[in-house]
Amino acid sequence: MRCKPLAFALSLSLAIGTVSAAEPAKPAKVPSMQEILDASPASDWRTLDPDRTLYLQLPTGRVVIELAKAFAPNHVANISTLATEKYWDGLSVIRSQDNYVVQWGDPTDDDKSQQKKPIGSAKPHLPAEFERKATGLPFVQLKDSDGWAPQVGFVDGFPAARDPKTDTAWLTHCYGMVGAGRDVAADSSDGTSLYVVTGQSPRMLDRNITLVGRVVQGIELLSVLPRGTGPLGFYEKPEQYVPIVSSRLARDVPEKDRTQLQLLRTDSKTFATIVESRRNRRDDWYKRPAGHIDLCNVPLPVRTPKS
Amino acid sequence: MRCKPLAFALSLSLAIGTVSAAEPAKPAKVPSMQEILDASPASDWRTLDPDRTLYLQLPTGRVVIELAKAFAPNHVANISTLATEKYWDGLSVIRSQDNYVVQWGDPTDDDKSQQKKPIGSAKPHLPAEFERKATGLPFVQLKDSDGWAPQVGFVDGFPAARDPKTDTAWLTHCYGMVGAGRDVAADSSDGTSLYVVTGQSPRMLDRNITLVGRVVQGIELLSVLPRGTGPLGFYEKPEQYVPIVSSRLARDVPEKDRTQLQLLRTDSKTFATIVESRRNRRDDWYKRPAGHIDLCNVPLPVRTPKS
Questions:
Q1: Are A22 and A75 found together in one domain?
Q2: B232-272 tens-digit pLDDT
Q3: Residue B3 lies in a domain
Q4: What values do phi and psi take at A235, rounded to 5?
Q5: What is the ipTM score, two decimals?
Q6: CA-based nearest distance A213→chain B, Å
Q7: What molecular function terms (GO) are annotated for this protein (chains A, B) (predicted)?
Q8: Which residues of B fall within a CB distance of 8 Å from A201?
Q9: Does A200 share its domain with A74?
């Protein structure tokens, strides 16, 4: 008998599940993630706000980024200015480090001998936005333990952590999270150089660098880029750079050209159901439900609205 | 002032560190990971065993996999037979799912109407090897907590978990780990279809599928492959398949053509120093040491021996 490799992972089909390998098989209809989503009310979904949606247009397609204004208001404001003034147009993806990050910005950024692209009316200096006051945030806490933070969960679709002792909250470095590159000084990022996590969540970066948002569509256009052969995965030759066609806020793009997306609300009942269905997989492929889910393993469903 | 994006991550340069943002800066020479490795004695390194090293030769280069005989003896034996009998030659990488896995094997595996490639003298049926007895294993435990298992650590270079209550141990789904695809039945894998983790560690798969080894070099040849557009990231058209030139045990390759690699012993003092240096980053870029490291964030250093 040969194995069928299709069966594991995000099975979209209906499954007749056993509870666990140790218990007797109880045939029970376990809804798949897709079935849970299909049964969700429209009110459990939200539409991306064009004022805080950034497009990164590459030759291969569009990456859609939701900006986290509640956590990094100064960076998001600067990034918005840079996008509106077409700062990134003609700049490049300059780094792809395996199991870590892809980064884009001005290729001459680190070369003091070269003329940098002017940043227009964007601010040359911003405060570090590593964490903020937790009070006032709609923090949906996961019950699961986390090695890096006292509490983890979601705030309006973003993975986040919270420390009740200090009343602080911060965004976390999960796959797809976007941050602002900086120099040694904590407040040396200005939003011109952005990176996205494309590997095992580097949570040691949490509260060490300003996260500004999350890729909600098109991450695979960045994650497959050839790894750079220079130190830290930087490309060594200009011909390796991947050109940025343009980068714009959705609000600056004609409505007909915007990417229409809906995101499952992380404070919805449907989301809670999804989390539990992933914490303990009960379809017939899984023999042992894990009883745990890591913050960065929680899926954040996105869909294209029916037209 | 503009940001320099080079500064974060695996800094190889010497750093003058502050202890944390909350404490006064104490200029202290903090050795980098590279300096720790450079200072290590030769006895802290081991050479790959040609009997349990599998090469996966792609048109773009060679992926080197160390097989985990101690955890999956039956699968490793079958994989060895398949490699020696050239089973994978001319087969393909058939799946690349973003933030999850890349998989290779017989493209016709899931199509009952097609003739499958014969498996020669390999066994058509193997036991599931999800876990084993912990007693007798040289388990080097991390002091860090883990949400998925009572204890985590390393066994001879492989990330692993242990449950002292049941005296069991198992390999864990960290980035680069290689497993044997299976159908719904726990014992339906035969080692012909293999996958490698290329995203956030899917630890919910632990003890649900047989892990057989780990990529120790060349993961970037797999992780950049275009994502498949079919369900679960399977390629939909034969022209999307990436051909496997050959797959061989190192022992079956002339010595001059083998990839010479040394791996840092995970039971060495140098490894313990590396883990602590990554658990609490004290170079001048990091403002807040994390005080924690996740099992799947621990680097497993590999080097090419000086000739």
A1: no
A2: 999 999 999 999 999 999 999 999 999 999 999 999 999 99
A3: no
A4: -70, 140
A5: 0.91
A6: 18
A7: isomerase activity
A8: 200, 294, 297
A9: yes
